[in-house]
Amino acid sequence: MPPKKKGGGKGGLGTIIDGVDTTQMTREQLEVFCLRIKEENEREREERNFFQMERDKLRTFWEITRNELEEARARLRNKDRQIEESAEKNDDELKFYKQKVKHLQYEHQNNLTECKAEALVSLKNAQDAHTEQEKELLKDKKNLKMQLREQGNSYEDQIKNMKMENEKQISVARSEFEEKAKELELKYDRKFYDLRVQLNTKHDMEISEVEERKNNHITELKKHHDKAFNEMKNYYNDITLNNLALISSLKDQMEVLRKQNERMNKQVADLTTENKKLVLPLKQALDDVREYKRQLQNYEKDKISLANTKAKLNETTKELEDLRWSNDALGLRFAKLQEERDELHDRFVKAILEVQQKTGVKNILLQKRIQTLSQITEHRDVVIGELTSVMRQSPDRTNKNLEEILTKKNAAISDLQYELARVCKAHDDLLATFEEKLKLYGIPKSELGFTPLRMIPQGQAGLARGPAGLVTQNK
To answer: What is an example of a Pfam family matching this protein (predicted)?
Structure first.
């Protein structure tokens, strides 16, 4: 039995329940009141079982979501590993091709040095040949100049000789023609004298005939003389013209030779400059020919390697597209899982808030009821003590009934206190489990938006720390 309060019989006031004072309640009313408390206790137990089932459902949902999340993470890790393997494979192939390119560059450098050496040798030989040709051309030029000088001297000597011969011929021809003219003049003088003698003899008879014949003969002589003079004049004119033509032809030949010499000098200079200009194009053309030959030799190999590289590139591109597609699908699924996780988190927080609010209200109501019941029991203990003092005539029966009533009430009170302690402990264990899960997923408590309350009933701190029978170990 609980201890009795001192002075309870004098100053204690009765508690009114359902409009009836407990001090004036009969046994039947107390039994009805106890039955109602038991019904409320059963209802609280059913609600506790309902919350336990909801808690188990949330736990199963959370386990399923965690397993799905782990599977998604495992698949994502596998895909990441595949992507890393493909990237490593691509890096190895890239290193292989880089090494191959380095070997090709080394071979190209060797070929280029060989081509440069050959080009230098050929250029040196060509330069030597060109220098020899230039020396020969200079010698030929000097010889041509000497020949031209000798020819000019010889032509001048020939012209002088021809002039002298022409003058001699002219002088001889002049002397001959003068002698012939003198002879003709003498001849004609003699003829004229003879004719004059004859005419003088025939002067009288044939004066008219002679004069006529003389006139005819004079005219004929004049014509013949004019003809001879014209022939002689034409002859000398022809000789003069021939000499002038010969002189002009010789001058033309000298001019032609001079122009030919200038043209040959110009051709030599042009050939020299053209030779110098053609050295670099010749070198470049030889380099291009060697490069084209080398490219023609390596074309088939490069073509095969290019086809293989294109095939590998297509395969790698397809694999990359597949990996991107799977990565996008996994990203969408991961986003969906995150949304579902956030939704479950929100629902879980809401459920915890609702449970906390309901349990808080119920705990407050239960605490008030327990306080009222404790006050009622204390008051009844006082009343029973007074009744026992009054009813001493039949103490055995009265004490037995009172003890039964008090035992039932104490059992009901202890049951209610025990249920309250279990509900508070379940609430605290649920909060502890939720905090552990938040730590496991790295979610700080500040993101919840509220501060969880620890439910410790007033005056029952020892019971709140006891086992509640509702918490399972998190494996």
So the answer is: GAS
Q: Give the angle 24-26-31 at the CA atoms, nearest 5°.
A: 130
Determine contact, residues 413/370, Cβ cutoff 8 Å.
Answer: yes
Identify the DSSP state of 466.
S
293: its two tokens: 């030959």
> Tens of pLDDT along 294-343?
777 777 777 787 788 888 888 888 888 888 887 888 888 888 887 877 78
pLDDT in tens, 181-233: 788 778 878 877 877 776 677 666 766 665 677 677 777 877 877 787 788 77
Q: Please choose, from the candidates 46, 49, 60, the residue with its C-alpha nearest in 3D space to the C-alpha of residue 348.
A: 60
Distance CA 35, CA 41 (A): 10
User: Are the beta carbons of 460 and 421 closer than 8 angstroms?
Assistant: yes
How many Å apart are CA 323 and CA 91, to the nearest integer? 17
The dihedral region occupied by 4, where left means phi > 0, alpha psi between -120 and 50, and beta the remainder, is: beta
Mean pLDDT of 148-171: 83
> Scanning the structure block, which residue is given the tokens 């003699």?
190
Across 8-17, 59-68, 79-88, 184-193, least confident range: 8-17
Separation between Cα atoms, residue 79 and residue 57, nearest integer Å: 33
The answer to whether 426 and 470 are in contact (CB under 8 A) is yes
* Alpha-carbon gap, residue 308 to 330, rounded angstroms: 32
Q: What is the pLDDT of residues 375-411, one digit of tens each?
A: 777 777 776 666 666 555 555 666 677 677 778 878 8
**Structural tokens at position 322:** 């597949």
Lowest mean pLDDT among 33-47, 96-110, 117-131, 400-414: 400-414
Report whether 272 contacts 134 (CB < 8 A).
Answer: yes
Beta bridge partners of 17: 20
Q: What does R_g of the chain's alpha carbons equal in angstroms?
A: 76
Q: What is the rounded distance in angstroms from the CA atom of residue 106 to the CA atom of residue 112?
A: 10
Classified as helix, coil or strand, 452 is: coil
> Residue 195 carries which side chain, given as an amino acid letter?
L
- Separation of alpha carbons 225 and 402, rounded Å: 210
Largest Cα–Cα distance of the chain, in whole Å? 252
